Amino acid sequence: MTLLSRIQHTSQKLTAADRKVIEVLLGQQAEAVFLSAAQLAERAQVHETTATRLAQKLGFSGYPELRAQLQREVMEGQDAAARMRRSVSKVADGSYLADLVQSEISALEQLARSIDQRDVDTASDMIFAARRVFIFAQGHATAVSAFLQRRLDRFAMTTVMLTGRGRDIAERLTSLGQDDLVLVLAFRKQPTDYAAIMGHAAQVGARTLLISDLAGPTMTPPAEHLLAAPRGRSGTEFQTPIVPMTIVNAILLTIAGRHEPQIVTKLEELADLFDRFA
Amino acid sequence: MTLLSRIQHTSQKLTAADRKVIEVLLGQQAEAVFLSAAQLAERAQVHETTATRLAQKLGFSGYPELRAQLQREVMEGQDAAARMRRSVSKVADGSYLADLVQSEISALEQLARSIDQRDVDTASDMIFAARRVFIFAQGHATAVSAFLQRRLDRFAMTTVMLTGRGRDIAERLTSLGQDDLVLVLAFRKQPTDYAAIMGHAAQVGARTLLISDLAGPTMTPPAEHLLAAPRGRSGTEFQTPIVPMTIVNAILLTIAGRHEPQIVTKLEELADLFDRFA
DNA sequence: AGCATCATGCAGGATATCCTGCGAGTCAAC
DNA sequence: GTTGACTCGCAGGATATCCTGCATGATGCT
């Protein structure tokens, strides 16, 4: 039973003080969900007791239950995606494709909420300004890094892949200088060589950019700039590279958009090159 | 100071248990704002104490302060999300990220309409039944194929990558037999070697599967089974691998789901299962 | 192996939050 | 004016929530 219907159902027995409380409760829902009985009462200019008794009048065992109900309602109201997800999984059970699409969509919605365009701008500028871009990725992240590298090459940027282990990376890192950028793609947990690479970058004055998921903020040492968003299905381990892939695409689009003149001509030159080979 | 920046700033001092808590905190923000220290700790599978101490490490006087900070940020974030959703129509404000997310979402919705789960089932069975899977991909499709190969390897399947040009491919194709499957990832236009590969496969009796976009139906000779969906942003030069990537993920999920003792319907349960393979 | 350092869990106390018995005040009916 | 019904606030107890000292165990270094 919804809070509103409970209120209507009990409206005859409500006092003036009760109505004051309800006014705050419904009028400031977004904040009210966090308030204790005393805080709520203070906003409504009534005594704390009134809050407790109102909750009981409305059929709850006490104030905390009332608040929990309000929390549920507010969350559902705002999470339209959740509502959709429920109905879909109910209709199309056994359809992995439909389920997957649904969860990817909500992951993308979450992405838009997690990262601001300004952060993307910063990342784009860092890449565009770099003399060379060293891309570090391991495991599943290589799928994203391969894509990124191809695109940056198209933009006529110089990229260096850091894919192997220890030694291989160290060798390729020797030339790293202060005009270069180290771009790390890492998910789930901090890669073994992460600290060493970041440490070296800091030492030679290279800039650092980390694209990650929830593990991003915990990696140490921290990168100069971080783009991180949860990769779908909070709590579960099932995660696809869709979200980081989209982050990368947003960066690429931004580079293209903000530096259109240069990029476009590079692409045209490339088209000529292709023609000559074909 | 934002919670995220505090986490980054303190990342050196964070323990494994701390990270678990942070994962829940950020991954399930919407719900975490309501949880008590004990409830949060339970979700993160750590002791309540950890929550308290994490809050102090991050510079709060205690857990309640941390939660209050999270509440503030979530509330602001929701305002921001609402603002963004409202201004989605006018993309001119330079928010490439928001625009991109929006178009990816509609591309995914289109995908769910274009491909039926039964087609995914067929593809999954073909892959699972194959002795070896030969994966052919070129250009941007390699990003997807690399991902697919990694996953199939985790399923303990035998994969062979066909990536190079002409000669390289021919050499690796010599062993192709009738128990094998040729899986082609190709977008935009038919790759140069496509016809040769498909021809050879037909000759030796190998099965063929094509994952593609709008160009798929026009490729000749046709593959035995085709999974194709438009990749959004029709007409634009910039196309992302999100849709084919999601097709591949659906296939992988289906394989995992159909060949596991227990029949699982929920994606949550599948996630665990999938993780066991991954 | 031995030691130091640190992370983690436990137990108990401190605090915040909530509930309830009691009484003062208000109002209307008689 | 008295009574009764009701609202509201207070105070104290009950409970939930949180914090901290201590012990244990893990880890790493010498």
From TrEMBL, chains A, B:
Gene3D superfamilies: Glucose-6-phosphate isomerase like protein, domain 1, Winged helix-like DNA-binding domain superfamily/Winged helix DNA-binding domain. Pfam families: HTH_6 (PF01418). InterPro entries: Homeodomain-like_sf, HTH_RpiR, RpiR-like, SIS_dom, SIS_dom_sf, WH-like_DNA-bd_sf. Signal peptide: none annotated. GO terms for biological process: carbohydrate derivative metabolic process. GO terms for molecular function: carbohydrate derivative binding; DNA binding; DNA-binding transcription factor activity. Residues 123-261 form the SIS domain. Residues 1-77 form the HTH rpiR-type domain. This is RpiR family transcriptional regulator. The lineage of its organism: Bacteria, Pseudomonadati, Pseudomonadota, Alphaproteobacteria, Rhodobacterales.
